[in-house]
Amino acid sequence: MTPRPYVSRARAAAAEARRQAVIEAAAAFMRANPMTVFSLESVAAAAGVTRLTVYKQFGSRGGLLEAVFDVLARNGRLGRIADVVTDPDPREGLMRLAEVFCDFWSGDAAVGRLHDAMATDPDLARALSERNERRRRAVAALLERMQLPATAGQRRDAADLIFALTSYPMFRLLSGGRSAAGACALIKAACSDALDRLTARPPAGRASGTHWH
Amino acid sequence: MTPRPYVSRARAAAAEARRQAVIEAAAAFMRANPMTVFSLESVAAAAGVTRLTVYKQFGSRGGLLEAVFDVLARNGRLGRIADVVTDPDPREGLMRLAEVFCDFWSGDAAVGRLHDAMATDPDLARALSERNERRRRAVAALLERMQLPATAGQRRDAADLIFALTSYPMFRLLSGGRSAAGACALIKAACSDALDRLTARPPAGRASGTHWH
DNA sequence: ATTTGAGTATACGGCTTGTAATTCTAAAAA
DNA sequence: TTTTTAGAATTACAAGCCGTATACTCAAAT
Fold first, then answer.
1. Are residues B163 and A173, on separate chains, in Cβ contact within 8 Å?
2. Percentage of chain A with pLDDT > 70?
């Protein structure tokens, strides 16, 4: 009973097409419904396949969510990050970085839903956190290129602050009753302030001397 | 068969004691475990009661979570907010406000777990959002008292930015690899910068003229 | 024509949140 | 002290998840 060679071209293509259909159906479902009603049964029905097919394709609920995030990142033009980190003017690059991510956070509602799912899916949380670290490294690289008169600790503080300012939770908090452009302007202003703190001011700033118990 | 009057003193007291025990058991469970394994069965067992007792006391899972949040807010010394909004120096009051909330976010790990639960529990999300609006109003009140040379829109932007800076997501993002005191210092510095933008700078700041598509 | 693989159908087990009916227990009233 | 009564425990049930296992279908590759 030695298995004979079998390479399926059309079958693999059809499977890949169905896989993409399931991913798109999941993304569409996430755009239209809160994450509390997201279930494999629902997306399977929306994609016209069975729940078992989803399992065969993605292994688990978390696997499907990670696959959805991958296409979201691909469609979200996050490839621009490579451009902005090499911007001749690092400061301008940082502003463009903020714009790229505001664009990403506001472009597809499914992105926010995925962030909600992080609370219930530890695997997805790790995957997204890892992706976010790329943003932190991009910010740090831009800061390094700015030749700032600051200690390593101050640079790290600034990088972490800008990392947080350009995060999805920050964007969501500022998006209440405000356009995406307005939220982006606020975020860029705050990032700019964080940079000014490192350049124009004395090492011990106005509020850094206060106590905290 | 007209029921005769019956007012239970000791029984009601015992019920209230059990209620508090359930709340404390839930908080302890949340401190020790991630929210993904939180179930009424677990907390009921930890509290030494039955799951049905939890339902009789709190009505639902969300009801229990809201009750937990109430005692957390009570223990978290959030009553200091009333003091800081009436601080003679509004700017100092804002710094104290940031400290009060950094204290709250870092004081009990259950607070963070409750924020995680917001993603799965819409009722809890509404309840916590409503509480958070109190913070926004406190920030706005302090800003009003500062007599800033700014338009209403600029004040609203600053209030929203400071509201976001003092939120739990911001604190969590800045707490990675940093002490609570360090995160608080960063947050206060950012808040201070947001105020400086309204006072010392021209109405059109350095980064506010950039575009966003 | 026969093997092969992907999808389907069906079923099960385990865990959740809720609800319902019944019984037990101890405190309050007579 | 005896009876009434509220609260909790017990048991059971319905529905919805996720995840897995087995057998079956059917089109594609050999």
1. yes
2. 90
- CA B189 to chain centroid, in Å, comes to 21
Chains A and B form CB pairs within 8 A to the count of 126
According to CATH, the topology of domain A13-73 is Arc Repressor Mutant, subunit A (1.10.10)
**In 3D, which of B210, B207, B115, B96 has the Cα closest to residue B162?**
B96
Tokens of B32: 């020790």
- Chain D bases closer than 7 A to any CB of the protein: 4-12, 16-22, 27-30
pLDDT digits (tens, 9 = 90+) for A184-210: 999 999 999 999 988 865 544 344 434
How is chain A split into domains, by residue range? 13-73, 78-199
Which overall architecture, per CATH, does domain B12-59 show? Orthogonal Bundle (1.10)
| A176 and chain B in contact, CB less than 8 A | yes
Contact B170 A174 (CB under 8 A): no
What's the whole-number average pLDDT of chain A? 90
Could you identify the residue written with the tokens 């978390």? Answer: A62
User: In chain A, pLDDT over 90 holds for what percent of residues?
Assistant: 81
Query: Residue for token digits 């700033």?
Result: A205
Residue numbers in B near A193 (CB within 8 A): 190, 193-194, 196-197
Chain position carrying tokens 């939890």: B54
| Inter-chain residue contact A120 with B36, CB threshold 8 Å | yes
Closest CA to A114 of A38, A59, A176, A56: A38
pLDDT, mean of residues B7-26: 87
Q: CA–CA separation, B61 vs B54, rounded Å?
A: 9
Distances from the Cα of A151 to the Cα of A25, A143, A203, angstroms:
49, 12, 9
- Write down the pLDDT at residue A3: 58
pLDDT of residue A201: 52
Which residues of chain B lie closer than 8 angstroms to A118, CB-CB? 119
Mean pLDDT of A153-163: 96
Q: What is the mean pLDDT of chain B?
A: 90
pTM of the model: 0.90
Terminal CA-to-CA distance of chain B, rounded, Å? 75
* Strand C bases with any atom < 7 A from protein Cβ: 3-10, 15-21, 26-30
Query: What angle is formed at CA B132 by the lines to CA B59 and CA B103, rounded to 5 degrees?
Result: 100
